[in-house]
Design goal:
Length: 302
């Protein structure tokens, strides 16, 4: 059976996989993203791709690459710091090794949305926002059943929707983005600043444990983060006329702690008639969504 080669290039790990025509991962391997320069990152990509190609035995019919952004789709590059040449080199080198196979690059949020729509919680959705709440907040859009790249490949960067015009500084250079409130480390920091007794290393998982044990500040941190995400979802939902939002990532693993206040706040904010049916569901594919979606992206190119 023919397979699609999928790559997922992230800030902490790089994964390669082979995906069959039904969207099943039939091979996958991952390695930590090295700290060094682009060359060091490329060495890891090359190792994983070589292994996957050996596994595939010449049956690769396309290549899809999911990458942490921002990306530059027209140039085929990944523009984050030292990884600036990785996307471009993925294209050129893989294309050399796989004559005739098409290659598509997409943001990791877009690929997550595509993966969930193909094999996860987004099945059947025509207007979908797939998003993650983890160390950051990211996402991607499928509109009218088609992956929506935008002008540069960065559409769906929902983490930088401003939900508090007077809010704190964001890593993007702006202020009050949803990521400044709802990203796991930001929620944990807010809780510490408001009396949660935890070490500086305590993360969103520790915060969830505290909330589940009844810690009032931890619970409030989750409500605050969920409310910010809900404000963003209502806004993006109205702009894009969405029918479904699928939420994954480490913070979403806390389950009802996030989803109960999130759905309640979405119902408060999304009041237009056409938004009444807007559903919010937990992601189903976990860390595999990027690879499965990258394969779907490659398929959509043909
Ligand atoms: Zn921002």
């Amino acid at each position: 059976m023919d397979v699609t080669l999928a790559l997922d290039i992230g800030g902490t790990k790089i994964a390669a996989g082979l995906v069959d025509a039904e969207g099943t991962l039939v091979h996958q391997a991952k390695l930590p993203t090295p700290d060094g320069d682009a060359e060091a990152v490329w060495t890891v990509v090359d190792t994983l791709v070589t292994e996957a190609l050996a596994e595939a035995g010449g049956r690769v019919r396309g290549v899809g690459i999911a990458s942490a952004g921002p990306i530059d789709l027209p140039a085929g590059t990944v523009s984050a710091d030292t990884r600036s040449t990785i996307g471009k080199r993925c294209h050129s080198v893989i294309l050399m090794g796989l004559t005739g196979a098409s290659v598509r690059l997409g943001g990791d949020g877009l690929c997550m949305a595509l993966g969930e729509r193909w094999r996860g919680a987004g099945r059947g959705a025509q207007f979908l926002l797939g998003m993650v709440v983890s160390t950051g907040v990211g996402g991607g859009l499928v509109l009218d059943g088609v992956p929506y790249d935008g002008r540069t490949g960065n559409a769906g960067h929902v983490g930088h929707v401003v939900v508090d015009p007077d809010g704190g500084p964001c890593s993007c250079g702006g202020r009050g983005c949803v990521e400044t409130i709802a990203a796991g480390p930001r929620m944990a920091q807010w809780a510490r600043d408001h009396g949660w007794e935890a070490s500086a290393e305590a993360d969103a998982k520790a915060l969830a444990d505290a909330a589940n044990a009844g810690d009032a500040v931890a619970l409030q941190a989750f409500r605050r983060g969920a409310t910010a995400v809900a404000a963003m979802i209502a806004s993006v939902g109205a702009v894009c006329d969405l029918d479904l939002v699928v939420v994954g990532g480490g913070v979403a693993k806390s389950g009802a702690l996030l989803f109960d206040p999130l759905r309640k706040a979405v119902a408060t904010y999304a009041r237009l008639d056409f938004l009444r049916g807007l559903r919010v569901l937990p992601a189903e594919l976990g860390g595999d969504a990027g690879l499965v979606g990258a394969a779907q992206l490659a398929n959509s190119a043909r």
